[in-house]
Amino acid sequence: MKIALFIDDLEPSGVVVNALALSRTFAEQGWQVSLLAANASGALGSEVATAVRTVNLLNGPREPSRKRRMRRSVWPLRSYIKREQPQVLLSVGNQGHVAAALATMGLPTRLVVRVSNDLGHGRSHLSPRAYWNRAKFRFIARRSATMVFVSTQLLAAAAQRIPSIAAKGKVIANGVDAQMVRRRASEPTVLPWSTNDDEPTAVAVGRLVEQKNFSALIEALSIARRSMSIRLMIVGAGPLLQALRHQGEKLGLGPSALQIIPPVSNPLPLMAAADVLVLPSLWEGASNVLLEALALGRPIVASATAGSAAEVLDGGRYGVLVNPRDPHDIAKALLRQVSTNPVLPGHRSADYDQGAALSAYVRIVSDLTW
Fold it and tell me: Which intervals hold domain Glycosyltransferase subfamily 4-like N-terminal (predicted)?
């Protein structure tokens, strides 16, 4: 059987991490697997399984805009599908679903979309952007054979906005390979600060975009430092880099208090060195970083609106949940989690085994091709 997975690029992100795991698992079934990327560059390119074929859809210099990359990918993606005739195309991240739906129109390839983020993006359902998102997902739903949602909350919210989604929607929660996470966390890395001092470190990982809410986290750091010397490392890149650096400077947070470093292919050693891991997102689907934090056993502070975070942390039993729009609440949680009495995740990662999630995808693809 032939199956293709569609992503934007191979830069570190939850979508790419899941695409790599899925493509490897499909190849282990003896299937012919291709990983189709609008731009096949990125720090995780070396992580693609040897049995998986990587296809670069857009030639030439990298287009800086992801939206334009997706638009330009439609015709090359359709050409690939017509030529190679995969039985299934799996669009792994929300940003690619419209392109995948357009590219498969009128062709026998079955489309599966993995819905990995909130359709409303944390905005009012009456906003113009919300209307546009609903229109897009109605189209995607009509074209899809199956829609996989990464949390029950996402499916429920989507079905409330677009009732027709309920008939095609399935829930497969993201999983984590805890043993692999711990093994890779022990790999050598370079830390921006000495680990020989007593100053606690908070770490956050993600794209520097509005969704990740790092501006509120930086403000919370400034508030927390009035009570304790605590520092923050953000691992990520994106359009808000300069704005976040400028905010830190205005708040008097020098390099000894705040570091924003570029993405790395393996952020796990940086996360393992943290005294607290922070997920301040305004919205999410099901955060891979949160699951990795569970596997590492580090104290966690997470936004109550970050997708499935409240469910994963069992309402605060395995980490502290906060209001992402209240920097004082985030600061209070940071201080709690670097204290001598933090809320720890214990063995919670065992409830999110990656093997079970990957097997569920194999069953969905197999059912579509019988």
Answer: 13-178
